[in-house]
Amino acid sequence: MTTVHERVDTFHDNDQKPVGYGRMLRKEDPRFLRGRGRYVDDVQLPGMLHLAILRSPVAHARIVSIDTSAAEASPGVKAVVTGAMLAQQNLAWMPTLSNDVQAVLATDKVRFQGQEVAFVVAEDRYAARDALELIDVEYDVLDPVIDARRALESDAPLIRDDLDGKTNNHCFDWETGDEAATEAVFARADVVVSQDLVYPRVHPAPMETCGAVADYDAVDGKLRLWSTTQAPHAHRTLYAIVAGLPEHKIQVISPDIGGGFGNKVPIYPGYVCAIVASIVTGKPVKWMEDRSENLISTGFARDYIMRGEIAATRDGRILGIRTNVLADHGAFNGTAAPVKYPAGFFGVFTGSYDIEAAYCKMTAVYTNKAPGGVAYACSFRITEAVYLVERIVDCLADELGMDPAELRLKNFIQPEQFPYTTKTGWVYDSGNYEPTMRLAMEMAGYDELRREQAEKRARDELMGIGIAFFTEAVGAGPRKDMDILGLGMADGCELRVHPTGKAVVRLSVQSQGQGHETTFAQIVAEEIGIPPSDIEVLHGDTDNTPFGLGTYGSRSTPVSGAAAALVARKVRDKARIIASGMLEVSVADLEWEKGAFHVAGDPGRSVTIQDIALRAHGAGDLPEGIEGGLEAQICYNPSNLTYPHGAYICVVDIDPGTAQVTVRRFIAVDDCGTRINPMIIEGQVHGGLTDGVGMALMEMIAFDEDGNCLGASLMDYLIPTSLEVPDWETGFTVTPSPHHPIGAKGVGESATVGSPPAIVNAVVDALKPFGVRHADMPLTPSRVWDAMRGQARPPI
Amino acid sequence: MQVPAPFEYERATSVDHAISLLERLGGTARLIAGGHSLLPMMKLRLANFDYLIDINDLHGELGYVEAGPDEVRIGALTRHRELLESPVLATAFPIFADAERVIADPVVRNRGTLGGSLCQADPSEDLSAVCTTLDARCVIRGPGGAERVVSMEEFHVGPYETAVADDEILVEIRLPVRPGCGSAYAKVERRAGDWAVVSAGAAVWLDGGAIVDARVGLAAVGPNTTGIPAISAALRGREPSESLYEQAGAIAADSCDPVTDQRGSADYKRHLAAELTRRTLRRAVERARS
Ligand SMILES: Cc1cc2nc3c(=O)[nH]c(=O)nc-3n(C[C@H](O)[C@H](O)[C@H](O)COP(=O)(O)OP(=O)(O)OC[C@H]3O[C@@H](n4cnc5c(N)ncnc54)[C@H](O)[C@@H]3O)c2cc1C
């Protein structure tokens, strides 16, 4: 270990050793960099069997028959299970996170290509996979519904005939804002701009695919489940409900996770199959999906077909925003969002602007595609909302002949207006937008860039500058408004200080790469003065951590971060009483300086937190009424979301001959309130910006007209590499959250939310000489070329 | 992890050993070179073979780039990286380094081979387009050491199909060397390491100011990489000029047969065939002159 520390000390990022906030290398990195991470697929148990899933080759078909006899006879096979067999145990269907139901294994029909039909358990992965080929399924193929626009036509095939009384493919309707007031401002506006936009289906594609190892012990009745989950506690409760197992006999362990991005929030049929298989065979069972399975069957994101409308005065005062959305939810509504928010937090589509009225009407439909909806770092659909507003604001700027930066600056919510209630009812906690915007413009050299662009245009060169300004809403709860299947979105946290002054903090959230082991140690360090290296962060094991709803929607720092700070303060309060006994002064006479209490006016008389820890566990007397030990536990229920914001500027060049887009520069100024570890924040921003380049320029899960998924491998579903991205230029401003104990706001998804519109705006700006006002993602060379010839088409 | 169906595996110790194994096992066996085309297909179970014959130990025998007076000879097991770094090719045919820089990524280039690329016969294969452009001859060896030499047009008989029989192996590629040559390659891809949306190679041979011969090879716009004789005919005997490149580009667009897919529309690919033909010809001429 010592050598590790000596080595990392040479990195400039570690030139500070903060006892609290500041730049420091991630505590988890040595294990990841040395290949010592321990992921679900690294779990090996004695006698473990392997599970493989047979998936539907077609998008929509009735199952006529399934013959498993040859598979059962295949070497090494221990069990073959079909939907009919699960149905006998009442396990063929399970609830989704959106109160719909989803087939664990299909019984009646298959409803998307890749749907789970049967599984094989065998001695090794090869034997299991080989046996899949021996299962004979007869399908009666039905017409699929692929285009969401056709889902509600009267002759569209019915997908969800499993739902009682269902006669069409309607999933839900949702609206927000004031329709009449919005109509009124549109009626009196000088200028109204309307634009159709598609946010295509994209996939989180984490490096580690989903999987589980289930180990059911028939003797003590305990189920241990290692699984790739971003929400281990919520999953435990849901398994208790679905499988009827007593909750205290379920332990969910989420070890190191190789990326989540929302993909690992839902409960997938494969997890349930692994549990069933372990119960049936009496052996531990591993299921690890392969890359294609991950891409075709697990939670996707977006698939919003939107019309955006914006109304303004001639001099550029935005009056109202209106939108109509058709949402494609796939075959089952598996969206992971708080139940009262079927469209997630799309309601923040009014963006960062002080407007008079807003209205959204949404219709969601079922189609023969994989279920999901909210995944891929979107803060519950804020990605879609920000894309909508930032794109139509640019369309308005174009219509008015106004600079897009100037138009935004003119319409920002002003600092004195916070807390600001939007026209759709969201209460933005704090913000100071103009300095953030000005800093980004200054870093970019905005005026100089515009001059360069003018010169290039004169030479027929294509250069574009795109701006996006976003306000995020992250950190769900409060629990009274936000729950997932009845589980309130609050987070527990527990802190124990050991006798020698080292500490362990137990979190309810789980990290998939966000650096929690470092950030949370720093939060606790800041409050009680124990160095981060002396604080162990435990997470991801439901038997060893307090209950909470998990990591997604950028909620870890806003919710669990607050819990960690508050639990540390609780410990500090107790430490203060013990210190008063040790120093024989009253509590009121003690002053806290990070890591020690001293007697006011006599700094020489002090005790450190380590002294206090020893006393708390020692043989000596403690003050009246104080128990031994130095630990505390809390459950934090946020009073509101936090609202980070940011200003992004993107510069692109387009080759006029081939229509290839190069992102030349990207300036990202983020304001996430108090900054705990700036290096980790920058890492989150770099990752999100790279995601944004992927979505804007290349990523899309496409289907052919028969419903075959055309993005079933990483050769077909492209994700960006270091060669597609520029050196990111990041900056920051700090506007603390007034209601968060340390003023921090989430930052995990800011860049994914904010970057796609900046890039699309830049490409559209570059194409202005061709009269282009909009082009949908993904802006592949072929699609850019179409736009250059006035033939921009939606991708679906 | 994607797992292939069961297969047996043997390492060949010589070319003749490999051929004798092929003779015995017939169509149920496949040679494996770099494995970067074969293994992905096997893992996806798009291709299932009972036997794999690994020829990587033959790199000593089949991995080389040799310059002769009339031709450059390249062994079939020469790896992408060796082609990229070859000084012989950098001088004689810079088109190789142009292409290699945009083929896949370093991991694939460290293992993937020239022979595997040609034998895969993927319509988007960059090295096939390079070899088509350079009018390569393919040396195929069969049982008893019998060798035959075929042109690229003969070598590729359809998508994923070659003239190599079940008991044969591609051993060498021969590139004719003529004076005054310049060559270049260009590719449009959606992302680094992706297969071509369209790519084009061009080679010109100049004498004095005039084009003695010219060849253009295109990938991803037809069933196999396409050499376009009409371009050669149009360019021979002419002075290089922008209008000549225009004309060649127009011929390229007319004579290719792309399909619309996730990489792009057929119209766009046609446009690229023209655009990249112009660009590579321009570059090839510059190189021939310098
Ligand atoms: C991620 C990725 C990206 C790629 N991108 C590109 C790209 O951009 N452009 C491009 O052109 N290619 C690309 N490729 C393909 C790459 O160039 C492969 O290396 C090449 O296609 C095959 O060479 P190989 O040696 O790996 O062949 P293998 O996979 O070993 O073999 C391919 C086929 O050729 C046969 N074969 C091999 N050698 C011989 C021989 N000597 N005689 C007879 N038959 C033989 C095999 O039996 C097999 O059928 C990519 C591959 C990957 C994995």
Instruction: Give the low-pLDDT segments of chain B.
Output: none
Beta-strand segment tally of chain B: 14
CATH fold category name of the largest domain in chain A: Aldehyde Oxidoreductase, domain 4
Order of helices and strands of chain B: EHEHEHEEHHHHHHEEHEEEEEEEHHH
Strand content of chain A: 15-25%
- Residue-averaged pLDDT of chain A: 96
Structural class of chain A: alpha+beta
Q: How many angstroms does the end-to-end distance of chain A come to?
A: 54 Å
Q: Can you count the helices of chain A? A: 19
CATH architecture of the largest domain in chain B: 2-Layer Sandwich
| Helical content of chain A (DSSP H or I, runs of 4+) | 25-40%
CATH architecture classification of the largest domain in chain A:
2-Layer Sandwich
Shape field of chain A: globular
Overall CATH class of the largest domain in chain A: Alpha Beta
- In CATH terms, the superfamily of the largest domain in chain A is Aldehyde oxidase/xanthine dehydrogenase, molybdopterin binding domain
Domain Aldehyde oxidase/xanthine dehydrogenase a/b hammerhead (chain A): 34-143
Keywords (chain A): Molybdenum, Oxidoreductase
Cofactor (chain A): Mo-molybdopterin cytosine dinucleotide
Pfam family, one (chain A): Ald_Xan_dh_C
